[in-house]
Amino acid sequence: MGNYESTMVQKEKVTWPCDLDGHELSINTALHTEQVPLVDKFGTSLFLFKHQITCGNLENFWHFFVSDGTWTIEFGDEQWDCKTVPEFRVKVHNREIPPDSVEEKQFTKTDAVAERMREVCGACNYSLCFRNSEHLSRYRWGLLVQLSNASWNSDAQAVQKLHGGSSSEAPEF
Predict the structure, then answer these.
(1) Which of 4, 33, 85, 113 is most deeply buried (CB count within 10 A of its CB)?
(2) Residues 91-119: pLDDT tens digits?
(3) Residues β-bridged to residue 131
(4) Among 164, 172, 167, which Cα is nearest to 16's?
(5) CA dihedral angle for residue 26, residue 155, residue 97, residue 108, rounded to 10 degrees
(6) What 3-state class would DSSP assign to 131?
(7) Which residues have C-beta within 8 Å of that of residue 110, sequence separation ≥ 6?
(8) DSSP-derived secondary structure letter, 35
């Protein structure tokens, strides 16, 4: 059991060599071009939300996103069925916010926030450890108003767990 690696963990490990030096985002140019104009549709009052997901053996997983109540930007995959490895992309959409979502923070869409939103539209190299929905939401928007020198932060315990640390069972996808 302790040596079992799920498909998700195997895919995650492939992203690590390039991530150790800068946590760079890869952008799908066509998706970026399509999504950037949608940032202007957001109102000035934004909210950092989180939504708890249970999917297979993955329990109590928090998915984060930013919304004005109508428009949302998130690192997600609306086609994900919990049985396959997700292909998360940063997209702007106006789908309904899950009713059990929890509001963590309210902040203003300044010019700087809007520019950061445009910058990440179409990002496509999701990483559970280095570029996940919480990193994106907190760094790009939620903490932008509090930190002048914001940076991507990774959870060292999650990295250790995926490297074969104390977790005896990996989530199965």
Answers:
(1) 113
(2) 999 999 999 999 998 989 999 889 889 98
(3) 127
(4) 164
(5) -80
(6) strand
(7) 145
(8) H
63 CB neighbour count, 10 Å cutoff:
20
Element (H, E) at 105: strand 102-108
pLDDT of 169: 35
CA distances to 14, 151, 158, 161, 162 from 168, in Å: 21, 31, 13, 9, 11
Listed in sequence order, the residues at least 6 apart from 140 whose beta carbon sits closer than 8 Å to its beta carbon are 66, 113, 116, 117, 119, 120
pTM of the entire predicted model: 0.73
| Spatial contact of 114 and 46, defined as CB atoms under 8 Å apart | no
Does the pLDDT at position 73 exceed 90?
A: yes
CA pair distance 16, 19, nearest whole angstrom? 5
What local confidence, expressed as pLDDT, does residue 11 receive? 66
